[in-house]
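Example (one chain per record):
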Amino acid sequence: MKVLIFGAGENARFFLKHNPVASKVVIMGIMDNDNLKWGEKLNDFTIESPEIMRTREWDKIIITPNCFEEIASQIENQYGVAKTKLIKISDLIIPEESNMGTVRLQCDYDDCYEISDLVPDKIIPNNKMEEFYLKKSHRIMNKWWHYFEVYHTFFHKYIGTDVKILEIGVFKGGSMQMWKDYFGEKAVIVGIDIDEKCKAFEEDNVRICIGSQADKDFLTDVSETWGPFDIILDDGSHVMEHQIITFETLFPLLKEGGVFVCEDCHTSYLSSFGGGYKKKESFMEYSKNFIDCVNSQHVNCREKDRLPSYAEHIKACHYYDSIVVVEKEHRGISIVTEFEQ
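Predicted structure:
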């Protein structure tokens, strides 16, 4: 595949240096709207004017800035390029180099593809969520593929039961449909969102509560009205302060034996969400204290007061790419013996 790269910023630098797709495509040039960058070097390429798309041979244009729609509209209107020729970095995949969880594909794993050429016909799902998301008709939702393996690992025991699940962040309502399909008709599914339009997604056993996850009283009221929940999933604002407030408010109210999931934790490394690598205010740094909670019985008496009140109820904490999963169960005192029979 011959490509032009639009945008010579940080995303383009990361793509060229760290994304294996860059070695699988033939890069015909790098262009940018900023004429002050023209003539500068980016890796081994010279940054050029967008005019090169008129004369250069290419199959696709990879738009690297986050404002995809804005730039795509500019290219369509100014250069007459069909939108089907414009793609994001995330639209390209080398299966062998990709974290797909338990999703499998009918293709050459060492080749480079547009995801749209693989979904849905080349998808081999491993669980109901993968099948629903990638092969069935549903409203819009945005999920990393490996999430479904994590969900299934901790949620499968609730299939067919009267499980109560709370998801913070309804968006376009697609995940509400997925939970209903996965858990079954007995499940009580509650969504939280600040957008009142999300009320339209209510149906049967699906309830939508309008409010902010930054409001402790609101979160408590939702739990008292519809809980206690077996599963709480934070897919809300992804802002550090909000994630921490949500955990500290709702984890103590989570049903014993339940699971708390905070997803899209990559925002812990993004300044735009209040995060940053090793920044103490990030949810990722905050969650590292859960390790001490798991081992709280070994903390000496003088230091125990520094642990949170729920320390004895964190059974385990699991880290995956962009996801933190916390299991709630009162551990009690661990037993060690030495004997011979």
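Caption: The chain is about 25% helix and 20% strand.
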